Inverse folding.
């Protein structure tokens, strides 16, 4: 089974700021059946961000929510039509979001493994370049699934 699903990837979304991105992620998590409580997911995304930025380097962010309303660990990916400020580690605006949704019951296990695997992938220029150049959800899913399978 592939971890990254094409119907969980949204390209060139017109979202103006980090708050709009978080609302979009929470809405998609609910629409995709990952959670039954959009407001709770939104709250958890904001709570995690308040602990410290999830904005990484080179235009990427890895926001994540852990909550009992989340049914199974999953990932939603969003690329933005225009980069937004995310208070990233390198100060650059964010244009590519890889959001993790984790059930409370898997908070210390699946969460940490997924987060470290995704963060590790983003350290490789061929991955970040490939993600930014991809023009279809299928291309993004294929790239990430092949790299995640190597770990």
């Amino acid at each position: 089974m592939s971890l990254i699903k094409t119907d969980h990837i949204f390209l060139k979304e017109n979202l103006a700021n980090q708050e709009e991105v978080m609302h979009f992620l929470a809405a998609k998590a609910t629409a995709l059946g990952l959670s039954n409580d959009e407001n709770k997911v939104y709250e958890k995304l904001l709570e995690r961000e308040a602990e410290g930025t999830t904005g990484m380097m080179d235009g990427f962010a890895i926001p994540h929510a852990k909550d009992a309303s989340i049914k199974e660990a999953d990932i939603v990916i969003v690329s933005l039509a225009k980069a937004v400020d995310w208070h990233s580690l390198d100060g650059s605006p964010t244009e590519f979001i890889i959001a993790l949704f984790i059930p409370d019951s898997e908070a210390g296990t699946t969460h940490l493994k997924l987060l470290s695997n995704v963060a590790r992938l983003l350290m490789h220029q061929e991955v970040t370049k490939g993600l930014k150049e991809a023009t279809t959800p299928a291309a993004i899913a294929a790239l990430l699934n092949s790299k995640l399978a190597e770990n």
The domain at 6-150 is CATH 3.40.930.10 (Mannitol-specific EII; Chain A).
